[in-house]
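Two proteins follow. First one:
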Amino acid sequence: MSSSCRIAIVGGGLAGLAAAHALKTFGMKTEVFETAPALGEIGAAVNVSPQAVKALQAIGVGDKVAAVGTTSPGIYTRNMQTGEFLEFNDRHKAAARYGAPYYTFHRADLLDALVSGLDRSAIYLGHRLTGMEERSDRIVLAFANGAEVEAEIVIGADGVRSVVRQVLYGDENPTYTGQMVWRSLLNGGDVPEEVLEPGGRIQWVGPGCHLLAYYIRGKKLVNIVTQEDTDKWVEEGWSTRGYPDEMRLSFPNPEPRLEKLLSLVTECSKWGLFTRPLTQNWGRGRIQLIGDAAHAMLPNAGQGACQAFEDAYILGRWLEACRDPAEAFANFRRIRVPRVHGVQRLSISNARFKHMRDAAAQKESIDAGKSSVHGNSDWVWGYDLIGEWNKEPSVPTAYAA
């Protein structure tokens, strides 16, 4: 791809900024167009597993993200109502096995790390995309502020409500899953250490729900994120105000450690989880979708941001390798779609497993080697995207198309 080719990235979140770094790494200049008046990520925390850390290292931000990430020792899982230990998912061993750590971040810190090193003059804030016209050799982007931009390549990284996707494929009707999420952020010093013992990262599982709590920014903050089955309608979004007492009622008869943690919540947010059909409609011609714009997924495998970072690296490699952007994007989709669909299916499978109503059967399954944390994740975390960026990925039969 010519270094003089004008490349527009729509969306200045984690996916868009990672793509900007990846293309910079491979000798291409980009312009980023972001709706918000300032760069920022809604939400408290994000997890990045070893293969995605390698992607970040390969696009030149490894040191920056290491400086703001908290290394995760692993998840200690208990029964929500009895406190019984169920399993420990050791991430230090995983890091040694896969050659990279598992990090947790405050989203704002990770975003700042991705912004650093980019040309800020090529990041245009306050640009909300309203329309897009495809021509034979370029795409014309129209923004709400009246600006028009012509680009030879467009990368849609504008999230689950992607305007780029809407222009390409029309309105989609996401389906409510019958599951909702609560989120809260606590000062680490307010949480007794014994609540999160022994490793500072605890998951409680129970009938129809689970709750995860862990430190970020060292031990300055504790992030709480939950998921529960419900017959109540909850709107899609990231910042709907919730009420702590209502949140606590979602987890009846909690064991003492969990009860203490929930008692500390004074502010929380909530939102409903919606699914969209697994699709190969990720772009066409000179337009390519990445991240949530292409493949929004449930959070139960911890891979939303990770798959966006894989996208960024592999997209950069294909654009470097091909003179024709349409050919590059077609190859990108050929490699990425099967793997990402597998990860999406894993996320759905994990949600079912974590919310088993029969606690005894759940424990028997765990004892039999079926982890409640990310299922069999070897194929996800062990993926060699650096060496196999141009090879069709291996996906276990259980998660393959």
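Second one, unrelated to the first:
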Amino acid sequence: MSPGVPSAGSGRRPAWPGMGLSGFALALLGLVTFGPPLHAERELRDIDQPPHEYAKRTPRDPFSRIMGGLASGEIALDRTDEKRFLTSLLSVLGVPASSQMLVFSTTSLQLSLISPANPRALYFNDEVYVGYIPGGRIEIVSVDPEWGGIFYIFDIPREGRPLQFERSDRCMNCHARDDTGQVPGLVVKSVIPGAGGGSLTAYRIGQSGHTIPLEQRFGGWHVTGADSFTNHYGNVTGTQSEGKLTKIPNPPGVRFRWDRYLVPRSDLLPQLVHEHQVGFANRVAHAAYLTREILTESAGQLSAAQAAEMDESARNLTRYLLFAEEAPLPAGGVAGDADFKSDFLRQRRTAPGGESLKDFDLTTRLFRHRCSYLIYAPSFAQLPSILKQRVYQHLGRALRGDDKSPDFAYLPVAERQSIRTILKATLTDLPAGW
């Protein structure tokens, strides 16, 4: 989940902008595309129409699966106060408090409660995103392996009242539009908030993922743990007069108390990981919806054009998995919060030599082995086989060095071999001879 809102439906536009791109924003200044187009000009069908029928599906995302137990009390939560409730909820969901990011732009369903004096907190793991505003409601985006984001909002129970979960259609106004490629996904915005609310300008509009330059990110967000890196839009509000934008510093912890939140930071590293995950979630959901449409249209027999379209989708997803066009980290690298590192690495799949796709680099790039750990995510594992096998074929060619295009020239031979070794040891459905 990321600053944004949602609502399923109309006004569809072609594909969604940019392959190795990245995104988050609102509306005004400079639309920049980072990477080649994600797809040609196909316009996806409305998500509530056949063959998708999103609203009619029974979700199988992690939160939906435990919702009944939470409502009945079979899964107990601490209702003593807001913070204890949030802590126990995150624990049940396996979401670490160390992933906390604070957002003070009014880019959420509960925008009337958000301000520099009352930021919104976001927490996440590989599949679940939790939003919390002191004095507000809990927001959940949980990723279904077939249907993308599933959105819930609910009150923190008080005075012994039962938990009541609302499946939020309003979230789809933002979370199934241009920012997500018209499929149920995640939104990350980068704006300069006005001192009195609203947004004065926006950056990297309609883009998401690790390819977005860092200097275009973090507008409306608090960023800690990045003292040597100041070339970004975090930690500022602004005013605008006669077309001139004036930035006003908004240091974290000055206009609000840290003790209202679970940890006293909004570290840079979780925000970098979160951006990568948002880009992945949107791309894999778009690929799944596209494939579903092609298979419906083909009636079991792909035309040459349909096969080419599916192959393009697979190649673009492969490029993202292999961190093509990843934005470089700041000079001197990133330290990263120690608690978040420990929590993030707790569930890592390892090859016999102990190497994992979750191993950080943090000098010039995010990860040591540039193949996303989200290749293990249910949303990738349950892609239609006809698409996933194409991704595996592209991955194999890239990692063996058979693909001679410039797309993967940035990967040294030794790194390709390491990635291939890890994948062969940790995936069970690779094609024979891969």
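SUMMARY FIELD: The CA atoms of residues 228 and 416 lie 32 Å apart. Residues 54-260 form one domain.
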